[in-house]
Amino acid sequence: MNILTCIKRVPTTDLQPAIAADGTSLEANGVQYMISFYDEIAVEEAVRTKEKAGGEVTVLTIGPSEASKEVRECLAKGADKGIILTDPNWAGRDALSTAKTLATKIKELGPDLVFCGRVATDRDNAAVGPMLATLLGWSCVTDVVELEIADGKGTAKRESEQGIESWSFSLPAVITCQKDLNEPRYAGLKGIMAAKKKPIEEVPAEAIANQATVERLELPPPRKEGRIVGEGVAAVPALIDALRNEAKVL
Prior knowledge:
Layout: E1 2-6, E2 9-11, E3 33-35, H1 37-53, E4 56-63, H2 68-76, E5 81-86, H3 95-109, E6 113-117, H4 128-136, E7 139-150, E8 153-160, E9 163-170, E10 173-177, H5 189-195, E11 200-204, H6 236-245
Helix pairs in contact: 2-5, 3-4
C-alpha cells in the first residue's frame, strides 16, 4: 500500500512569541521548531498501517530545507522517504494555498491513503485535510479515533459533538487524526541510524497565491496580577464580593 503523511513544521509550544517588524508575522529569529502534535499521530498511524498491510510511507511537507530535521524524525519512526516542497515564504501560506500545493504533489505520487493531523498547533484551522480531499475528489473522515483498512476499503470511528460516529469509506481517502487514535512511538537508536540513509527529496513548491491575507498581528494584553483576598473561612465573603462585583462571574 502506498501511504502518504502530510506534516507541518511549527514553533515549539513553549515559544514566547514576538511580532516581526512588518506587523503581520512572528519574529523568526531564535525560534525552535517541532512537528505539529497531531501530525505525529498521523505519522504513527501511517507506520502502523504499513506494518499491517505492507507498502511504504512517504512524508510530505511544505517548508524550508531546514525542515529536514522534522522529516528525519519521521523517518526514524518508520517512514520510508521524505519530500520537502521548499518555499522561503512557507509560514505565510494560508490553508487553501497549502492544500492546493500539497494536492498537486499528491496527484503525482498517487497514494492509496493520506494521513494528516486534525489541526496544526500553530494556526489551529483544521482546514487543510478536508480541503485536500475536496481538491483530490477523495473520501475524507476527520477527527478519527479508530481505524481499520482492508481490501481497498476502510472503517473509521470519529469524534463529534454528538459522540462517536462510525463511517465506512473506499480508498483512496484522506484521514485526519485525533489524539485518541494512537500513542506515537519514540525513535530508537536503530531507527535514528537507519533514518540517516533514507532519502529526502527537495522540490520547489508550486507558487499559489493566498486567498486570505494577514492584516495585522497583536499580542494579547497581559493578565492582571492576582491578589490574595484573605485566608480560610474568613476570606469567603471577600472572595464572593470580588467574583460578583469585579470579575462579574456570579
